[in-house]
Amino acid sequence: MEYRRLGRSGVKVSTISLGNWLTHGGYVEEQNAIACVRRAYDLGINFFDTANAYNRGAAEQVLGRGLRAYDRSSYFLATKAYWPMGDGPNDRGLSRKHLIEQCNASLRRLGVEYVDLYQCHRYDTNTPLDETLRAIDDLITQGKVLYAGVSEWTADQIGDAVTYSKEHDLDRIVSNQPQYSILYRTIERDVIPLCEREGIGQVVWSPLAQGVLTGKYRPGQAPPADSRAAAGEAGSPIRGFLGEDILTAVEKLRPIAERNGLTMSQLALAWVLRQQNVSSAIIGASRPEQIDDNVGAAGVTLDPATLTAIDEAVGSVAQR
After folding, report:
1. What's the distance, Cα to Cα, between the start and end of the chain in Å?
2. Which of 99, 109, 131, 164 has the most CB atoms in a 10 Å sphere around its CB?
3. Choosing from 3, 27, 41, 54, which is the catalytic residue?
4. CA distance readout (Å), 41 to 29, 44, 49, 254, 255
5. Cβ atoms of 205 and 177 closer than 8 Å
6. Structural domains in the chain, sorted by start
7. Is 82 a catalytic residue?
8. Residues 102-142: tens digit of each pLDDT
9. Is the pTM of this model over 0.85?
10. For residue 297, with 0-12 CB atoms within 10 Å meaning exposed, 13-18 middle and 19 or more buried, which class applies?
11. Residue 94 and residue 100: Cα distance in Å, rounded?
């Protein structure tokens, strides 16, 4: 396993991390989910990511049970808050009330005394930025949170937060969690340049484009029966990657992966990790053997010819 610093902080995290957005607490049977956590840990993954909103807290509970066998200091645990956790007017967002209440609730569900990384799951236009940043700083002062992060914030929003934290001597954001893959590159335009300047690392989600970059979806063929696409989930992010033009382009990655002795998943992850501002790429897994394959991307370096071939294969369909 390869380890990188999380932004400019001193902590090191595995370049492959395990998330449980679509798996724990519902989609995958609990014992299998826990088996995935344990396989990840055994393979050197020390970074585990979840959120309070994933299955309304059930995902945190399963992850907590999966990690209970290990010394707390041996892994890096991240969760998030923003999305609704109830029907009340204060059961959502980034207000001081919601953040502090949900941090305490997450600690109970995870069965730990602190989380390493607490992330604002989206930007809250209804809460003053200073209220959010001061609430998280207070949680850090209390020892319930060690580092602050955000998810899917724009460059301007991150920049505003950095400026305010500098001016008021608050603990600064160390990470951003955006979507990033061979097929979705929007952060390269302005988020990554800003974060490189400010020492903020990317912890990217969907590096396999919802599974499309694994090669299991083929042009002109129905999705595999056990896949998320076949389930027809309304609003699923995978729908944006299932166009025939995209699937045809992704097929061109297959021989590139084979020439490099990699699976398509490993090629896609290695491409994401070529970017040094990426501290870690979050994978999901419903079976332990999927983790074995993904971990094979750690430490892989793609040569310039391979990077050019990837761009030629999918450049016309990649979102920038």
Report:
1. 30
2. 99
3. 54
4. 19, 5, 13, 29, 31
5. yes
6. 3-209+264-300 (3.20.20.100)
7. no
8. 999 999 999 999 999 999 999 999 999 999 999 999 999 99
9. yes
10. buried
11. 9
